[in-house]
Amino acid sequence: MRRVELEADVRREAGKGVARTLRREGRLPAVLYHAGASVLLSLSDKTVEQLFHTGAGEHVLITLKVNDGGKQRSCMAVVRDSQHDPITDRILHLDLFEISLDKPLRVAVPVHVVGDVPAGVKEGGVLHHHLRQVDVECLPLAVPDELQIDASALLINQSLHVRDLAADPAVRILTPADQAVVSVAAPISEAKLEQLLTATAKETKEPELLKKEKKEEEVAAEGAAKPAAAAGKEEKEVKEEKKESKAK
Amino acid sequence: MLSPKKVKYRKMQKGRMFGKAYRGGKLVMGEYGLKVLQPGWLTARQLEAGRIAMTRFIKRGGRIWIRVFPDKPICKKPAETRMGKGKGSPELWVASVRPGRVIYEMDGVTKEVATTACRLASHKLPLATAFIQRSAV
Question: Which of A87, A211, B20, B106 has the fewest beta carbons under 10 Å from its own?
Fold first, then answer.
């Protein structure tokens, strides 16, 4: 795990207004969790972007120098969560998690496929990535940058699993060992491709209504009520006719 | 074409599309994807046209996912009809998307192939889009 250094200032105010003001000033709002408590921080926006948009991304071990109104404190932390802008991908907020170097840590480590193009892909197969990161538990300084898997010998309809990952003995993989990491699938048939390319021609019918049964019941109830109403109308008409005849 | 099998109500109000898509904005399955940069409606026909354009280009080479589903019915009145007399009948299905939403994902192809396939698909959509690629964790 790559090690980086970051300087942070403790902030007292919280909320979206404060966070927006900080972002306008080139600061990044963050929070540091430790021992069941949390401290609100602000970091340098540019430094964080530079650190996280190179190499290992957010998969880094941070030496955090916290400045609390003149008091300096240093601690080790990892990124637990991050919020990004959906369009610009700019980091909006960071969740940092304070760690101890002598206690095991659970983190997600990226899995990279290495080696030549898989033999199955050369034959026309398609490489499927089922798992792009695995959960591991180890001491912070033993966390690997990435786990590698060599898929060059993979033939069509073959797969590599979590148990095939080459990990250091100090690293305990928590993801189930029988979970597939990569596989090479057979290419789709010509008939299937033809079907995929012509599926648009079908016009869809109007979907079924979930409340249809209820409606039918209502209609039946209305149907029962109608004859009674009709009988009432007939009686009224007869009365009106009688009135007219009396008047004459 | 994509459309729901069962619905609770036949007709729906227009609705509004405020803000950005804070969900569904990251690549989940594939290595590459196409993201919208504007709010709007994507009809089932447009989504299908985009998918077919991508499939026609990559042929049997990769895998494609559609990350949105057109579950919103749009009603229209028949031509030359006077106003009133109630809402029109459902005519098409759309997916209401906000900026940042991933529409298609692709895997099992090279970056060059994915870029071209996404460009072809983007021509079938009525909104501005951007090609995206999975970055480091």
Answer: A211
B40 touches chain A (CB under 8 A): no
Name chain B contacts of A188, Cβ cutoff 8 Å.
60
**Domain, as residue range, for A185:** 106-198
Of B98, B114, B83, B80, the C-alpha closest to A86 is B98
Q: What residues of chain B lie within 8 A of the CB of A132, using their CB?
A: 134, 137
Determine the pLDDT at residue A17. Answer: 95
Task: Test B137 with A204 for CB contact under 8 angstroms.
Answer: no
Res B137: pLDDT: 41
Domain count, chain B: 1
d(Cα A110, Cα A28) in Å, to the nearest integer?
Answer: 25
Higher pLDDT, A245 or B4: B4
Say what the ipTM of the complex is. 0.83
pLDDT digits 0-9 by tens, A149-206 = 888 888 898 999 999 888 888 899 999 999 999 999 888 888 888 888 886 555 556 7
